[in-house]
Write a structure and sequence with these properties.
single chain; 45 residues; mainly alpha; transmembrane helix
Length: 45
């Protein structure tokens, strides 16, 4: 095993997970404009 390969793999996994979460959030926002991670982004009912 090469030196530093494990760190690179972990970095890709973490980056991929963050990217997937961001894409999912944007997708949810398009389907439902009132959807938000933070309460102040939600529309008041």
């Amino acid at each position: 095993m090469y030196e530093g390969v494990k760190e690179v793999i972990y970095g890709i996994v973490i980056l991929g997970g963050a990217l997937a979460a961001l894409i999912y959030y944007l997708y949810r926002q398009q389907k439902d404009p009132g959807y938000g991670i933070f309460p102040h982004n939600r529309q008041a009912y």
